[in-house]
C-alpha cells in the first residue's frame, strides 16, 4: 500500500457507460426487493424474531424488504460475542487489521453501482449523492488503514540504561450507532476506525437504512472479518440503545445523529455501574444550524448556486446543510430574487430518476416534522418561495423546497435544526452584524462566506466560530483528509472524522519503561573504543 492517500474519484455520469451501469444496477437491485436481512453474530445469521418492513421513500407503495430487529437478549449476545473476540483482535497485527479495511474498500469498488442503487432506493439519495456516499466509505477505509499504520510505530525515548516506549492499544468493545443520511459512509467510517484500532464492534445502523447496513456486513465478511470482531445488530434505538450504551462491557460509543439522542447517550454513558472498571468514551456528531454569509461584493452567480446547493442538496438532510443565508443589506433583495429563480429550476423527482435534483425526505415522521416547521415559519417570516410539487406529494415523502425571507435571527426556523429543504434568509446591516448572527446559535458545525474582499475574509476566518468553514464554495461535501469533518459547541463531542487525530479517540496510550542495567552487565552504547 502506498503511503500517500488519494480520495476515491466520483463517478462521471456524463459518460454513457456509467449511466448504463447505474441503470443496470437499479434494475438488478429492484429484482432483489422482498428479501429479509437477519442479525449477524459470530458471522452467523440469527433467527428472525421480529422484522421491520422497508419502503422506498420515493414511492411509498414499493416495498424493499424486511430487516430483522434485535431485542435486548440479542443485544447482550452481540456484546458478549465482541468481548470474546476482543483479546484476539487486539493482538492481531495492525498490518492485518489494515488489510481488512483495504479489502473492504475493494468490495465497495466492485459493488459500487449496486451499493449506490440501494442507497437511492432505501434512502432517497439522487445518483450523484449516492455514488459520493460509496466513494466516501472507500475513503474512510483507505485513510484509516494508513493512519493506524502510522500510529502503530511506538515512540522511543531511551536513555543510557533505560528503555521507554510509548504506544497505543484499543479500548475494548465499541458500539457504533449510525444515521441514515450517509447510510454507508458514516456507518463505515465509525466502524472502520474502531476496527483498525483493534476494538471489536457492534454495528447498529439506523432503522431507516438497515438494508445498506446489511450490505456493509456482507462486504466485511467477504473481506475476511473474523467471527465476533464485528456483529451486525439492526434494531429500534429506543429498545436496544440503552442496553448497548449502559452495558458494563461496552467501552466506547461512536454516535452520529440528533442532539437530543446524543446528549442522552452521553448522560447514560457517564454512569459507572458496578462491574464496570473503566469510564466509557463517547464520540458524537450532533448536527448544526449552519449559516452562509453573502457579502455585498460577492460573486452572485457563485453565491446563489452555492447557497442553493448547500440548502437543498439531498433535501437539506445533511448535518452540514446551509439552513441560514445571512445576506448583507446592500445586496439582499437582488440575491433573494435570484435565489428564488434558481430554486424554481431544481427538479424534484423520485431519486432513481437520473434528472433528480432532490428527492424525498427519509420517512413520514420526518415529513410531518418538517411541514410543522414550515407552518411555524409562515407565522414568523415571509414565505418567499415554495415549489409546487402537485401529485408528487402523494407518491412519496416529498417536501417542496421552501425559502423564507426577512427571518428574525431568533425565530424558531432560524435557531432549530429542521433537517429538510427549508432555508431562512436573514438580513444583516454589515459584516459585524452578519458574524454576530452567524455565531448566534447553539451549534458550531459548518459555515460559509461569499466575498471578494480580502479584509472581510480575514475577519470571517478569525471570527466565524465553526468546525468547518468554507470560503466562496458550498458548505457541504467535506472530503476525507482534505476537509476533516466535525464541530463543537452542541455540534460535536470529539475530534474530526477523516482527520489525522480521529483514531486517537479509539485507543488508549501506554508507556513501558525497562531498566537495562543489570548486576554485572551494562548494555552496549554503540560508542566502543
Brief characterization of the structure:
The chain contains 15 helices and 23 strands. It has helices spanning 16-30, 72-90, 94-110, 112-123, 127-151, 185-196, 210-222, 237-246, 259-269, 300-312, 332-344, 364-380, 412-415, 431-438, 454-463; strands spanning 35-37, 40-41, 44-45, 51-56, 59-68, 155-156, 162-170, 173-177, 200-204, 230-232, 250-256, 281-285, 290-294, 322-328, 382-386, 402-405, 422-428, 443-444, 446-450, 468-471, 488-489, 492-493, 507-515. The strands form six sheets. The protein has a seven-stranded mixed β-sheet, sandwiched between helices. The protein has a six-stranded mixed β-sheet with strand order 10-9-8-11-12-22, sandwiched between helices. It has a three-stranded mixed β-sheet with strand order 1-5-4, covered by helices on one side.
Tell me the layout of helices and strands.
Layout: H1 16-30, E1 35-37, E2 40-41, E3 44-45, E4 51-56, E5 59-68, H2 72-90, H3 94-110, H4 112-123, H5 127-151, E6 155-156, E7 162-170, E8 173-177, H6 185-196, E9 200-204, H7 210-222, E10 230-232, H8 237-246, E11 250-256, H9 259-269, E12 281-285, E13 290-294, H10 300-312, E14 322-328, H11 332-344, H12 364-380, E15 382-386, E16 402-405, H13 412-415, E17 422-428, H14 431-438, E18 443-444, E19 446-450, H15 454-463, E20 468-471, E21 488-489, E22 492-493, E23 507-515
Helix pairs in contact: 1-4, 2-8, 3-5, 4-5, 5-6, 10-11
